[in-house]
Amino acid sequence: MTYSPLPLRTSWSSIQAKILLLVAVVFFVTLGTSTWYSAVNQRTQLLHGATAQTLALVDTCFDSLNVMMLTDNMAGREVITRRLSREPRVVEARFVRGAAVDQEYGKGAAGEAPVDGLDRQALAGEEVVTTGESAAGLTLTVIRPWRATHATQGIDCLGCHQVADGTVLGAVRIAYSLAETHAAFVASLMRTIAINLLLFGVGMAVVGWVIRQTIVRPLRHMAATGEAIARGHLDLRVDHQATDEIGALADAFRAMITYLNGVAAGADAVARGDFDHGVVAHDDADRLATAFTALQAALRGVLDESSCLLAAARAGDLTRRGDASQFHGAFRDLIGGFNATLDTAVAPVNEAVAGLERLAAGDLTVRLVGDYRGDHARIKEAFNRTTAELATLVANVIARSDEVARGAGAIDERNRDLASRIEEECASLEQTAAAVEEITATVEQNAEHTGRANTLAAEAAASADQGAVVVCEAVGAVGEIEESSTHIQAIIEVIDQIAFQTNLLSLNAAVEAARAGEQGRGFAVVAAEVRNLARRSARAAEEIKVLINESVARVNTGNDLVMETGEALANIRGSVREVTATVTEIAHATREQAIGIGSANDAVQGMNTLTGRNREAVAEVARMAHQLREVTGAMRSELGRFQV
């Protein structure tokens, strides 16, 4: 049986994704480095070529200018710059006139004066070669100074110019547009990057396919096989064949499946009762084979010990017990269970024999006390129930005779006690009559007090209602105070803003006064005073704001207290109403008590009559109790012959 591999889904945690990510990182680093290096080299070569071409134009300008100087035609030098300006990609071409020439021949044309730092840098004797952005795009600017020497471009300049050797007479400035060349360079670079990315995509697809076929697919197949083995499925096979590490892993899986199948076959044999089929351990570290062999030995020992116990039981020897000390865990419990079963079977028989012997000797208190189960428990219950019922029958007869004797004595004693109590009741009835009269007077007084309490409760309810009205008015007043505080806060904020604006205006006035000098000094003093007043106003407004905030907080606290007072008054009103209702009920109850006391007085008179009758009944009961005691004594003498 072959398990299908896991679904080929790519995630960032898979081997394929990690390898592809590493390849992509290496490729992009290599591509970026090589592209950057190539772009720098190409741009450097582009600038070198453009610089050389521009310097050649500068030299041509110098040569043309020397020719005009020798032919005394310097007035036509603008022709040179106009002709150069018509050259392709030439953005600017002009001469920069030096100070030495101006001193000798006066100011030149307006376009020949230095216009920026680059011109002045060149007139200082430094050759300028720089690039920058202009309206024409990327531009190369070259400014070469023109020095007066005995051999400048093959001409002795010092013959005409009365200056020191090496003096800068001027410079030639040419700006060369690199926009077209730079655009072609960028387009070529983009094509190169696009081709590299296309090749990278194709290469990544090929590498991914190869990785999936040679690494990912076999690993996923073996992972599915491992999961099946973990679920106990051993009818598997691994078909991957290779000489690399994946192939070695597949060989290990095949060996593991073979080994586990051998262990499973041994377990099946043990389940069938065949202990001759063993598992050979590969080495000392083979825990599975070692554990399987130990299991076989333990099961074999349990079977041997059980066979010995069964043979002894069939022979009638119930004293034989198994040796549980040579086993462990559940096996020890099993042998111990066999021993306990034998003990359980023998114990009730021995105890029942001893109990029957005691019962035959007349001992009705004997019981079977062993902890038995099943049929043994039924035997125990039947034996104990029989002896218990027999003992109960005899004990009940003796107990009943004792109870009758004790009852007769108790009746006689209680009868004498009853006679004395009847005498006491007569005295109590007289005291009760006097107490009833006192209660009647007390009830009348309670009725009077209850009426007065009812009047006071009504007055308290009216006061509570007036307090609730006052609290409502206080809540409204607190709300008006809080609203006024809010308006005051708004006004203070306006004052604060006015002070801030006044401070700004005073600052501006102080600045203007400082600009005016001596004439604005007095105005500056006034502005300073205004600023001080503005600051004091701001501080005062802030202090008032703080006080207002504290007042608002206290008003809120007072509002809360007033609300709590209102709630308390509401509770008091409810309590007063409850008290009024209670007092009314008390008055009603007092009237009912007066009626009840009259009935109690009648009952006392009836009780006095009944007391006389009770005296006669007590005398009759005393005579009957004496006769009962005599009969009970005779019956107890007869029961004394039985021994329980």
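The record above closes out task 2.4. Task 2.5 opens with a second protein, given below.
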Amino acid sequence: MERLMLLDGNGLIYRGYFALPPLTTSKGDLVNAVFGFCSIVLRGIQDIRPDYVAVAFDLSAPTFRHERFAEYKATRQRMPDDLRNQFPKVREVVKALRFPVFEMEGYEADDIIGTLAVEAERRELDTTIVTGDLDMLQIVSDRVRLMTTRSGVENTILYDPARINERYGLVPGQMVDYKALKGDTTDNIPGVPGVGEKTAAKLI
């Protein structure tokens, strides 16, 4: 069975930046996000052994979610300059590795990855999404898994339907309702007042 690895470019860059201490080149340029991105990608290649790899990036323009909910991600602080400056370096790495890049105005990398994963499943490919968060658990299936880091950039965990059920007591398709009920402070999604993780799972 052929394997596809889909990389959440922005998610992995952020993960590398915040999970690792400052790392600099001989010229003094900060590269911890670049190093973290490369480390996670190499770990994914070693563990997954994919036949195909693709990367999706967010663009700076607002998405359709901002049009529907003006406060979406409104509480996020401005990206630090020393993180912003590492994005072009990561893109240079991706280009050198000849990974195809997907990005589209009005959509997030997660949307693109979800679309590619569904299409890959239709074509009977085994897909692993490599990301720095758990925002895409709802598209996990028997053919789609999600790999993320637990701490640092080396300690990874792989989510399939069984692991999601073990952790949340839910099936992947219920994760959208779960997140809507409990909210998400990272994305400034309010959720239902007084409903946390345990209550949300019970209600579903």
